[in-house]
């Protein structure tokens, strides 16, 4: 229904417009339709590329990915290993805030029930 409404102005005669304006309007309408299609899909479909399925990766792999891709923790090496819902985080970091951030990310990861802290602060 909404696609036909978007196409309606394109079908009307264009008065005072260049010939290329019609093609530009068609491209704009096509792109708008594609964006509306993406916006209208179910929320579960939109979130799945970001989260992945629970059966797809272990809790440790998900926690490791979150820590590795965190902007604040970039450039620091963390080792995340685990069995089932228990995850162990190991590293040496320059300050306590980085330790807190990494452990918070691990604890808040889907599927993680307990985090074993083996992160050392270099200054301590």
Please characterize this protein's 3D structure.
This protein is of the alpha+beta class and 124 residues long. The protein has two domains: 2-40; 53-121, Fe-S cluster assembly (FSCA) (GMP Synthetase, Chain A, domain 3), CATH 3.30.300. Helices cover 51% and strands 17% of the residues. It is built from five helices and three strands; from the N terminus they run H-H-H-H-E-E-H-E. It has helices spanning 2-11, 19-40, 43-51, 59-68, 96-107; strands at residues 79-83, 86-93, 114-121. A three-stranded mixed beta sheet has the order 1-2-3, with helices on one face. Helix 1 packs antiparallel against helix 2 (19-40) and helix 4 runs antiparallel to helix 5 (96-107). Residues 45-54 have low confidence and may be disordered.
The low-confidence runs, each spanning 5 or more residues with pLDDT under 50, are 45-54
* Count of alpha and pi helical runs: 5
Strand content bin: 15-25%
CATH-assigned fold name of the largest domain:
GMP Synthetase, Chain A, domain 3
Instruction: Give a short account of the largest sheet.
Output: 3 strands, mixed
- Overall shape: it is elongated
Q: What's the number of extended β-strand segments?
A: 3
- Average pLDDT: 79
Level-1 CATH class name of the largest domain: Alpha Beta
- Looking at CATH, the homologous superfamily of the largest domain is Fe-S cluster assembly (FSCA)
Strand order of the largest sheet: 1-2-3
Named at the architecture level, the CATH assignment of the largest domain is 2-Layer Sandwich
Query: Strand-and-helix sequence, N→C?
Result: HHHHEEHE
How far apart are the termini? 65 Å
Based on secondary structure, the structural category is: alpha+beta
Helix proportion range: 40-55%
Q: What is the total domain count? A: 2
